[in-house]
Amino acid sequence: MHPRCDETPQWAQLQAHYQAQGRGLDLRRAFAEDAGRFAHFSQQAPHVFADLSKNLWDRQAEALLLDMARACRLEHSRDAMFAGQAVNSTEGRAALHTLLRRPRGLALPGDEPFVAQALQEVHATLDAMLAFAEAVRADAQITDIVNIGIGGSDLGPHMAVRALQAHQLPGRRFHFVSNIDGHELASVLQAVRPESTLFIVASKTFTTLETMANARSALDWFAAQGGQDVARHFVALTANVAKAAEWGMSRTFGFWDWVGGRYSLWSAIGLPIAIAIGAAGFRDFLAGAHAMDEHFRSAPLAHNLPVRLALLDIWYRNFLGLPSRCIAPYHAWLQRLPAYLQQLEMESNGKRVDSQGRALPMATAPVIWGEPGSNGQHAFFQLLHQGPDVQALEIIAVRDSAHGLAGHHQMLLANALAQAQALMQGRASGCGHRHFPGNRPSSFVLLDALTPASLGAYLALQEHRVFCSGSLWGINSFDQWGVELGKQLAQDLQPRLHTGDVAGLDGSTAGLLQRLAGVGGR
Ligand code: F6P
Fold it and tell me: Which residues are the active-site ones (predicted)?
């Protein structure tokens, strides 16, 4: 067992450094005193450039954080994950999403014995899944693809299909149904026809209430509309192939229990992405992620972008006490990115005990939230500029646009730059409500273009960042026990909504249930 970050000697040194210097750090002064600050705190990684220099840290804090990571044996934990060790300790499983983008036949030092065989299975399934995706693309009768899934079986594919629309096959519409709320499925079903629709039922477990209810309703609708040939119009993506067969799904692409739900878009769960951007595009997506894997595996910690981001996250959460990180993608097609990152960070690291079950004495995952810029500027950026609390902010910008509308992209990029500048510079001249305190942090992440490869690399970067902060906090980032209790209670409450039975319920739940069931009057 490796020491947790708070158990290292650097922890107290970081606290002392924060009190002595970190608290009083002024970014404007830091830039004036250090001409090399941008160069030092920026980092090129495969497909992704990040400027971390407008953050409230200095070289000494970073050096201590790096020492802390070494004391926690972060590289050892990283290698254990890549090698297929059971790093998901509470479920006794590996977390091998990196294998899904590993080139055929590539062995890594220390690979667990099962990894070589697993890699062969990965490529056999990938080949079959991509052949199917190409067949769907070639089938002019199929105009609508409806993905039914939730959480990791929705957020990644949904985000990526929207992000990569410049690479999308024209003439196809992609719909994503996740919510148990029938309004969502109903409006999709109104817009499609059975003979031209492919339904993808995506669920690792094939037992998730929302997905199964939506799949059942889609099958019923298909039959009621006179749909012919369920085998042609429904396909299952799951790690529970037997369960999909019980559902009568004759065409299934499988994956493995060592793929976590929120890490699964690289597996068969990526089928909607593959249909949208084609087999070659999907292979580029995997290659971009693999390039980032190699960077994470081999770059020294001080020049390792996922590690540097994670250390900044720990500095902010545990020493500055920043409660949240706002995600502001300056690209309209990255609209679903904040939601995707919410699950990645908050389901992975939103935990109050370490992997041994011991209560943690420090804060863990920040709240992740956000919206694309420039929209956010006309909504919540007010709080970032002048609210009483400082929040972390991450701007994601793309240098090249994929549209030909003159002037728009320069305006967009100028706004992204200006926000980061304004947050840092502030404005001393005004007073009262015209005063901008400045010294507010931001990270600036830059992609040259929004391509399958750059998106793949960016997402792998975020996965590894979450893994690093989770490892340093001593957390198992790959389980999600926190979602179980609500699921169980909903099962108890569902029949009560018919009967109005409130026996044993607390006063509030009872009162609300009676109103919802129409028992106590509306
Ligand atoms: O709600 C938690 C969760 O288990 C997520 O981790 C997962 O991505 C989602 O539900 C969907 O699960 P499944 O793919 O098994 O339907």
Answer: 347 (proton donor), 378, 487
